[in-house]
Amino acid sequence: MSNSRLFSIIRKEFIQITRDRRTLAIILLIPIMQLFLLGYSATTDVRNIPLAVFDQCRCAESRQLLDAYRAADYFHLAYVVGSEDELRILIEHGDARAGLIIPPDYAARLTEGRAQVAFILDGSDATAGSTALAAATLIGQAHATELMFERLERRGVEVDNFQPPLEVRTRVWYNPDLVSSHFMIPGVIGMILFAITSILTATAIVRERERGTIEQLIVTPIRPWELVVGKVLPYVILAFIDTLEVLAIGHWWFGVPVRGSLSLILACSGLLLLSGLGIGLFASTIANTQQEAMLSVWMTLLPSIFLSGFFFPLEAMPKVLQWISYIIPLRYYLVIIRALLIKGVGAGAVWTEILALTLFGIAILGAASARFRKRLD
Questions:
Q1: pLDDT in tens, the chain (377 residues)
Q2: Which fold, 49-154?
Q3: What residues contact 52, with CB distance under 8 A and at least 6 apart?
Q4: What are phi and psi of 49, to 5 degrees?
Q5: DSSP summary character for residue 114
C-alpha cells in the first residue's frame, strides 16, 4: 500500500470536482433546494380548504354552525351560493374543495333534535379529502355536543358535573403539533445520501472511461482497490458535508429536533453510504457513458424512494410491495434516522435496522467492487 498513490488520486478527484462547477453545484446546492422544496411542499398539513355554503335557513342557528366551521382553521368560508347547481359548479371547477348545504327547516328540526346538514367533499384529492372529512366530522360533533349542553341547561339540568360514559384523552409523543416536516426532512437526508453517492460515484468513474484516462491509470502502479477508494472517498466526504448541511438547516430553519446522538447519526449514515457507493460502482461497470450511468442508477433510485416509506407508509401498500421493500437499504435507514432525530432513541432500539443496513451495504459494495476489479483486470 502506498499512501502517496492513494492521496494523489484523492487530490486529483477533488481538483476535478472544484473545476467542474456543475458537479459542485449538484453536490452543495441541490440538497438545499430539495430540502426547502420538500420541507414546504411535501406536507400533509391541510389548512384553509375553500368552503362553499348554501344556507337555505339563514337563521341564528345556521350562523352558529357556520361560526363553528369558521373558527377552525381547516376551512375557509370562501363562497356563499344561492343554489346547489352553483355549488356543484364551484367544486367542479376546483374553486371550492368542499360544500355545506343547510336545509330551510334546519332551525325547526334542530329544536326537535333531528336536524341534518349535508357536507360535500371533493374526493379527487384523496389526501386533502380525508383530512377535510375527519375535520368536518369532528367540528360537527363538537357543535352538536355544545348544543346538547345548552339544551340541558335550559331544562335546568346541572351540566357542570355531567361526565360522558367514555372519555378518550389523547397525547402525542415526540411531535406534539404533528408537523409533517419533522417526518419529511429526515427522509430527505436519506434520499440525498443515497442519490448523491450513487450518481456521482457512477459518473465519476465512467467520466474517466469517456475521456480515455482510465487506461492511463490502469497502466500505472495504482492497484484496482486504490483506484476505487481514491475515486469514491471524495464523494463520501462531500456526502457527509451534505448530511451536516441538511441537518443544520432542518434544525435551525424548520425546527426539526435532533434528540439522538450526532455521532450515531453519522455512523448510520455511513452505513447507507456503503450501499450507495456499491450501486454507483456497479452502474459504472455496465455503463459506457455518463448518461447510461445516470439512467442505470435511477432504475434503482425510483423504487428505493417510493418503496422505502419516504412518501407513503409501507403498511398501506400491497403485500407484494411490502416484501420487495425488505431488499431496499433506504427503508432501514429511514426508520433509523427518524427514530434518532425525532424520538432520540439509542442504537438498541433500532439494532435490527442497523444490522440489516450493514449487511446490505457490505454485500452490495463487496459485489460491485469485485466486478469493478475484474473489469479493470
A1: 456 777 777 777 777 777 777 777 777 787 888 778 777 766 666 678 888 999 998 888 888 888 888 887 788 888 999 888 999 898 888 888 889 999 888 888 887 778 888 888 888 766 677 778 888 888 888 888 777 777 766 766 665 666 666 566 667 788 877 777 788 888 888 888 888 888 888 887 777 777 766 666 666 666 766 777 777 788 788 888 888 888 888 888 888 888 889 899 999 998 998 888 888 888 888 877 878 888 888 888 888 888 888 877 787 788 898 899 999 999 999 999 999 998 888 898 899 999 999 999 999 888 887 777 655 55
A2: D-Maltodextrin-Binding Protein; domain 2 (3.40.190)
A3: 78, 79, 80, 81, 86, 87, 90, 91, 95, 96, 98, 99, 100
A4: -70, 125
A5: -
Distance CA 145, CA 136 (A): 14
Of 38, 32, 40, 39, give the one whose Cα is nearest residue 243: 32
d(CA 319, CA 279): 26
